[in-house]
Each structure stands twice: as structure tokens, then as C-alpha cells.
Specification:
About 45% of the residues lie in helices and about 15% in strands. With about 160 residues, the chain is α/β, with parallel strands linked by helices. The protein has a single domain, classed as Rossmann fold, CATH 3.40.50.1970. It has a five-stranded parallel sheet with strand order 2-1-3-4-5, with helices on both faces. Helix 1 runs parallel beside helix 5. The termini are far apart.
């Protein structure tokens, strides 16, 4: 049983999903990646979501980006939407952010599959102290990298 289910609107979203997968592998999180379109295969989206035991869903979509909202309509578990950049990226972002009352979708930045994975892990770490410790170490490592990268910059 995957702890996180990543649903992409199309195969072209795979590079964004791979950013999340890299984070999940680092944290030893069980995940699954699937393709289903909110517009072309809505019954498949419903079947995937309602039959899943995942703790968190990540939905990646561009253009009208209805997928995260459709996923949220079929579950009460957390859904994280990842808008895909492209010609109409503002539409994708707004369609995920502007959900109606009672059906929220957490939203990360354009193409930020990595941040979606981090947010999913933070959600799961609420009830898993070992995962919370790993996340604290990861965040410290990220902060240390920023400090190391800034060394010598003031001398330029």
C-alpha cells in the first residue's frame, strides 16, 4: 500500500513527478505514480482515489488543472496540487488555489513536485516521530547548504 499516491494528468508531467519520487526515495516513503485525466478519464480518477489507502494524494496538472480538485472531491484525505508551468500557468495555479469552501487543496509552486513531497512528508510526520526526526535533519541540511553557498559571496 503506497503512503502517497501521485496522480499525473498526462505522461508529460513525469519530470515533475520524478522530483517528488526523488524525495520519497530519500525518506524511504512508499509511493505510487499513476496517470489519469480529470477531463478524459474522470471515472478512472474516481476509481483510483476511492480504492486507494494512501495517506496523502499529490495531483499534478497543467492548463485548466482540474485534477487536484477532482481528486479532492473523492476523498477527505489531504490533496496537494502541483500546477504545471506552460502557456497558461496562471490558469493552472488559480484553478488549484481557488477551491470552494470545504474542499481544500494544498498548493505548491509551479512544477514543484519536490515541495509537494516535502509537504506530504510533513503531514505524515505529525503521527510519526521517526519521520519527523528525518524531516528535521533534512531541513537542517537544506539550511546548512544555503549557509555554505553564501560563504564568500559578500567578498564579490
Amino acid at each position: 500500500m503506497p503512503e502517497v499516491l501521485i496522480i499525473m494528468g498526462s505522461k508529460s508531467d513525469l519530470p515533475i513527478a520524478e522530483k517528488a519520487v526523488d524525495i520519497f526515495k530519500r525518506f524511504d516513503i512508499d509511493y505510487k505514480v499513476m496517470i489519469a485525466s480529470a477531463h478524459r478519464t474522470p471515472s478512472r480518477v474516481e476509481e483510483i482515489v476511492t480504492s486507494s489507502d494512501a495517506k496523502v494524494f499529490i495531483a499534478i496538472a497543467g492548463l485548466a488543472a482540474a485534477l487536484p480538485g477532482v481528486v479532492a472531491s473523492f476523498t477527505t484525505r489531504p490533496v496537494i496540487g502541483v500546477p504545471v508551468s506552460g502557456k497558461m500557468n496562471l490558469d493552472a495555479l488559480l484553478s488549484i488555489v481557488q477551491m470552494p469552501p470545504g474542499v481544500p487543496v494544498a498548493t505548491v509552486g509551479l512544477d514543484r513536485g519536490d515541495n509537494a513531497a516535502v509537504l506530504a512528508i510533513e503531514m505524515m510526520s505529525i503521527s510519526d516521530s521517526g519521520l519527523a526526526d528525518k524531516m528535521a535533519s533534512y531541513r537542517k541540511e537544506m539550511a546548512d547548504k544555503v549557509i555554505k553557498d553564501s560563504e564568500g559571496v559578500a567578498d564579490v
